Amino acid sequence: MNMYKVSYDIKKEAKEALRGRWKEAIILNIVPIILAIGINAVAAFMFWTTTFGQYEPEWYIRISSNFGNSLVEFIFSIITIGISFSLLDVIRNRDEASMAPNQAFRLFNSYDFVPIILINLLILIFTTLWTFLLVIPGIVKGYAYSQSNFIYKDLSTHTDVKEMNATAFIDESRQLMDGHKGRLFWLDFSFIGWHILGGLTLGLAYIFITPYIATCHAVFYDDLAKDKYLKDASEEVDENEDVWESF
């Protein structure tokens, strides 16, 4: 029977992995950190000026659209995935894994760029279609597909992933997360206090919150998948795993 870590243990392992390397982790996450601070600062400014009626609403809409344009979101998502890959390496090899700042941009000039784009484009399409039905199914499917990028990373170590259909990674994530979506949901929910702190500090607390949460997500995947996707196809994989019962 496989025993999986609860949120407390995941957070504990994440803190241990970051011990003595917080400076590296913060620099690695500098782009998401700046974006988080910027969004919180703009949100606070919009709330303040809207409340006291100092500016016209149309001005806020133009600023918001600049923050939410597709190009920024695209670049941000690729950087975030690259960071998550580096943090997974740190979880697995704490002494030797690199957290150099350029690791955040590792996917832009790599063999993995196009496959990652295709995977995440399909995830966006699938979750959007599910959300058209109801919001809740869209959220559930988002959790079901959440491990697709990590699975791609592991399989790419021994497989010609360019020969694989992008939907294969999404399907594998859906199967891997069967019975575990609730675990990840409660892990994310447990950070609500940190997000409140981030808002109260106009985003400054995200200097520490961003790398911490990202590392927790890497620990979650490593605990869930273990070495399943690091094995060659010729190696036997135990398919009869007990799962944590949830949605």
What can you tell me about this protein's structure?
The chain is built from 12 helices and no strands. It has one domain (7-230). Helix 3 packs antiparallel against helix 4. It is 66% helix and 0% strand. Mean pLDDT is 85; it is low at 236-247. The chain is globular.
Ordered list of secondary-structure elements with their pairings:
Elements: H1 7-18, H2 22-28, H3 30-52, H4 57-67, H5 70-92, H6 113-133, H7 135-144, H8 148-155, H9 166-176, H10 181-189, H11 192-200, H12 206-225
User: How far apart lie the N and C ends?
Assistant: 20 Å
| Strand composition percent | under 5%
What is the rounded Rg?
19 Å
Unreliable residue stretches: 236-247
Question: Structurally, how many domains make up the residues?
Answer: 1
Overall 3D shape = globular
- What kind of sheet is the major sheet? none
Organism: Vagococcus carniphilus
Pfam families: DUF975 (PF06161)
InterPro entries: DUF975
Keywords: Membrane, Transmembrane, Transmembrane helix
Tell me briefly what this model is.
With 247 residues, this protein is mostly helical.
Features:
single chain; 247 residues; mainly alpha; 12 helices; globular; disordered C terminus
